[in-house]
Specification:
There is one protein chain. By secondary structure, the chain is α+β, with helices and mostly antiparallel strands. It folds into 2 domains: about 35 residues, no CATH class; about 100 residues, no CATH class. About 25% of the residues lie in helices and about 20% in strands. The strands form 2 sheets. A 5-stranded antiparallel sheet has the order 3-4-5-6-7. The protein has a two-stranded antiparallel sheet with strand order 1-2. The longest helix has 10 residues. The radius of gyration is 24 Å and the shape is elongated.
């Protein structure tokens, strides 16, 4: 991209790259770019209905974060433990699985355990305590914004 901005009257410029066989070949600067752009369609999350979901969505400390593709991320102190794609709930810290009855109770398997592990009194050696510390801070900042800076009311 920078070669295209150089003055061809000042000097001769060429661009060399390697191909799939690891041979050096002359390249045309106009044919190359490392910028792959696209604009994803922004979708609104579908309305959340259903008694089972309402119990989970009423958990204290639950954060709902809308995503660009219409899904809603469910997080507890910065750790995503579930998401709502297309009207269904999917749970899991690593691999998402459809919601089961124990998720509807809002117990430790759902996200309650995440809140306990990610607290000031939590076990500092627990994997969830140490997971994504920046996300934890980010989730707490809006609730304590005046503590960070009193002018940010």
């Amino acid at each position: 991209m920078r070669v295209l901005c150089l003055n061809p009257a000042a000097a001769r410029f060429g661009l060399i790259t390697d191909n799939e066989q690891n041979f050096l070949v002359r390249a045309e600067p106009k044919d190359y770019s490392n910028v792959d752009t696209r604009l994803e369609v922004c979708r609104r999350p579908s309305p959340n209905a259903g008694e089972r979901r309402e119990r989970i969505l009423a958990m204290p400390g639950l954060e709902r974060v809308p995503k660009h593709d219409g899904r809603v991320s469910l997080r507890m102190r910065g750790v995503e433990f579930a998401e709502l794609p297309d009207g269904e709930m999917r749970f899991g810290l690593h691999e998402r699985r459809p919601a089961r009855e124990h998720h509807a109770r809002g117990d430790r398997a759902t996200g309650g355990g995440t809140g306990e592990a990610r607290s000031a009194e939590g076990d500092r050696e627990h994997p969830l305590y140490r997971r994504f510390p920046e996300a934890w801070l980010e989730s707490q900042a809006p609730t304590e914004i005046e503590t960070i800076d009193a002018t940010l009311r």
